[in-house]
Write a structure and sequence with these properties.
By secondary structure, the protein is mainly α. It has one domain. It has five helices and no strands. Helix 1 crosses helix 4 and helix 4 packs antiparallel against helix 5. The chain is globular and about 50 Å long. The chain starts with 5 loop residues before the first helix and ends in a 17-residue tail after the last helix.
């Protein structure tokens, strides 16, 4: 399998961080989450699924905590992209995709496909081999 250049790989790390900011920002506050939850429910119905269950305060809290952590993690990868952070992000995305697939298997909610596919794709691409040239602290292949 051909290797990616360090520069190309760091571009992928930044792109995944931008994707995360765009997708996750609505999950970071209770007010934006209320709107996105309604939109996700409507989208799930338009894809042939059932309305999503109502979110109680603790569900919203967990969603907002997750959204906040992902936003901070995304900013870190934008400001300091590295192979190491890309590898950690790839592993995290495979875990996220696993739990999304678990929820998909239990609920059949078609909206989950819109999350599981990109998570898995970002996870896989951030585990592609990187050329060993130009190993610096900001691009260490750990």
């Amino acid at each position: 399998m051909p290797s990616l250049s360090t520069r190309r790989f760091l571009h992928i790390v930044r792109a995944s961080a931008i994707y995360d900011v765009l997708v996750t920002a609505p999950f970071a506050t209770p007010w934006t989450f209320a709107r996105v939850a309604r939109l996700l429910s409507a989208a799930n119905q338009s894809l042939g699924g059932a309305p999503l269950p109502a979110f109680e305060v603790f569900h919203v809290l967990i969603a907002c905590l997750l959204g906040s952590v992902v936003i901070v993690w995304s900013v870190l990868r934008l400001v300091h992209p590295s192979i190491r952070f890309g590898r950690f992000d790839g592993a995290t995305r495979v875990l996220f995709a696993t739990w999304l697939a678990w929820a998909l298997a239990l609920t059949g909610a078609p909206i989950l496909w819109l999350f599981v596919v990109p998570e898995l794709m970002w996870g896989v691409v951030q585990w592609l081999p990187v050329e060993p040239a130009n190993r610096s602290d900001s691009a260490s292949p750990s």
